[in-house]
Structures are given as structure tokens and as C-alpha cells.
Amino acid sequence: MSGCPDSDTEPETADSEAAAGQDEAGDPTRDEADDPARDEAGDPTRDEAGDAAQDEAGDRAQDEGAARRARWTAAATGAALTLAGLAAAVLRLTRPAPALVPAAYASGAAVCAAAAVLGSRGRTRRALWLLIAGVMVMALGDQFD
User: Fold this and answer.
1) C-alpha neighbours within 13 Å on the C-beta side of residue 95
2) Of 21, 85, 100, 145, which one is least surrounded by beta carbons within 10 A?
């Protein structure tokens, strides 16, 4: 034996009133609303665990909302750039310009359309790079005009 007392044993010299107070606090039949030391927030340990779960659920909801906004943004931007590229290709076809110009606008619009599809499916990073590539192709076609 090491001579160390057990940590869960209470000293025999404990005050009887303190022991009675501990018994009341640990009594499961006692109503929690009757405890004057308890504030309106409730049990702090339960609140911390509940707050952590709520924070996690809130973070997850924010992440889902951000992902949804990113998908909509990528799809809408891709659609807008597709329409702009097609409109520019049609306008360049009606004017005397080299054939390469409307072809560049049309191919850039096709790349932006692919980006819109990828963006709506959640591939927003790839959609961003395709949008950049599509606009660059359209700008290159504009340089030939």
C-alpha cells in the first residue's frame, strides 16, 4: 500500500450542514426551477454542449448557403457571358469582319456555357477557370477585329 487515501472518500470531519447542502444539490427529485442559484440560462455545462452543437449546425448551414450561392453565381455568370458572347458573334457576323472574330466569340461563349453547367453542378473552381478562359478567347477574337 502506498499510503495515499482514496480521492473519492469524504473526510469524516465534514460539517453536517455542508453535507446536507450537497445532498439537496444532488437530489434528482428536486425541481430545477426551485434552485435560486440557477440563472435563466440553465445548466452551464448543458449550455456549453448545446452551444457547441448549435455552432456546428450553424456553421454547416452557413457552408451550405455559401456553396449554394457559389453555384448560383457560377451558373448565372456563365449564362450571362454565354449570351454576351453569342450576341457579339451575331453582331460581328452582320458586319464586315474576318471570320475568325465571330468564331472566337462563339467558341468563347461555348466555353462559358460549359462553365455554367459545371458551376450549377458544384464544380465552381473549374467553372471559374473556364469562365476566365472563355472571356480570354473572346478578347483574343476582339483583337483580330
Assistant:
1) 11
2) 21
**CA-to-CA distance for 36 and 51, rounded, in angstroms?**
23
The C-alpha cell that represents 48 in the structure block: 456549453
pTM: 0.58
By the 8 A CB rule, do 116 and 82 touch? yes
81-121 residue pLDDT tens: 999 999 999 998 888 878 899 999 999 999 999 999 999 99
